[in-house]
Amino acid sequence: MSSVLSSFSYYYTRIKSKIYKVDQVYGPFGVLKTGPIFDFNGHGSHITSMKIYHGALVEAIEVTFTNRDYSFTEKTGGNKCPNIREILLRDNEHITEVGGVYGKWNGNNGILRITFITNQGREFGPYGYTDGVVVTEEGYFQRNGGKLVGIFGTTSSIFHGMTSIGFYFQPE
Q: What is the largest CA-CA distance in the chain?
């Protein structure tokens, strides 16, 4: 376990040096597995849309960033999800709050549920497990304030879902 934490410490120190105008790194939450690592920090752009791929677990997140001159999309996680939900942000709208639950479903560690709230009061989610799905909740995350400008974390190489997630925020 200490080798996983030390490699994450190195990784996040390296990431932090690449961030533009990001004052707060929040997380990671979940299980820090040795699977693939993702880092979507937008490099000075803002988030204009997101797609959440989920079943009993949040399996993937796709983030579209827009700059004055161009847009680009980053995606992590699996592709075989029964539900895909899209978040389209309006002009001058950004995500200010993120909340969720991590734990286990069917023996797999992952992000069980996630919700996003914007500066205009719109709520997206919760995405992930619903009533009737047997899960073991192991922890919660909640962040309110600032502007979401990116996400990072790990995925599982076994079931291709997200096993941990963290967030980049900057002041509004």
A: 46
